[in-house]
Amino acid sequence: MDSLAQRCTTVLESTEARAGLAARLLAKHEVRTLAIIGPGVVGKICLASYMKMFVSIDKIYLKGSTVHSKTARRMKKFIEANYPQVKQVVICATLKEAVENADIVSESASIKMKEYPRYKKEWFKPGVLIISSGTFYMERAELLDITKVLDNYEMYEEYAQEDESFIRKDKKGRHEATGCLGEDLVYMMQEGVLKRESVLSLGEIILGKCRGRTSEDELIVVALGGLALEIVLA
């Protein structure tokens, strides 16, 4: 196996491990429903990790580019063939339909610049865990009272520094959304909208240095975007 192929394999293994670990640490006690937003390669490996962790999952919602997405249809067939405990797989027409009944929402959508999937807090049920490995956008005001977790703060800080010169700002000096949840949270901290201590570290949760989930109704969003890509580019 050549070096690039080895690193790509490492990316897939890393992504699966991080998504599964985040779900194990931060999901609520009983997980029955899963939403996969972006049913491509990353979505598929995240699915495998969740299914190992939660044998209780019996309904899965899929959201591809359209309700007729070939990728979504292939994943539906894959799930039906490999996970007999899943009683129903639903290909959804809208983001709202896909996420509103899910205990875990796993986002790994591949989209064009500035065509970010736009989520509304009101769509999610109490206790949901949102894991973003791709692009995620929610209005800032809605993010404020959701528990926010980053896998690698320093990495997103570097992204923000690199992108500073071409990310536009409004009249109040607020950066426009980048589609990268971790980077957007860094900008919110730099602008004084968020305090650094209000954003949790996945590493510190793993080490027991800070809390994870505190109640079954807590809404949690985790940014896992980019760390595995750094491995490929290293």
Distance between the termini: 17 Å
CATH topology category name: Rossmann fold
Spatial strand sequence of the major β-sheet? 3-2-1-4-6-10-8-9
The amount of beta strand, in percent, is: 15-25%
The strand count comes to 10
Q: What is the oligomeric state here?
A: single chain
Largest sheet: 8 strands, parallel
Number of helices: 9
Tell me which CATH architecture applies here: 3-Layer(aba) Sandwich
Query: What is the C-alpha radius of gyration, as a whole number of Å?
Result: 17 Å
State the CATH superfamily name. Answer: NAD(P)-binding Rossmann-like Domain
Helical residue percent band: 25-40%
Element-level helix/strand string:
HEHEHEHEEEEHEHHEHEH
Overall residue-averaged pLDDT value = 87
Shape: globular
Taking pLDDT < 50 over at least 5 consecutive residues as the criterion, the unreliable ranges are 4-13, 228-234
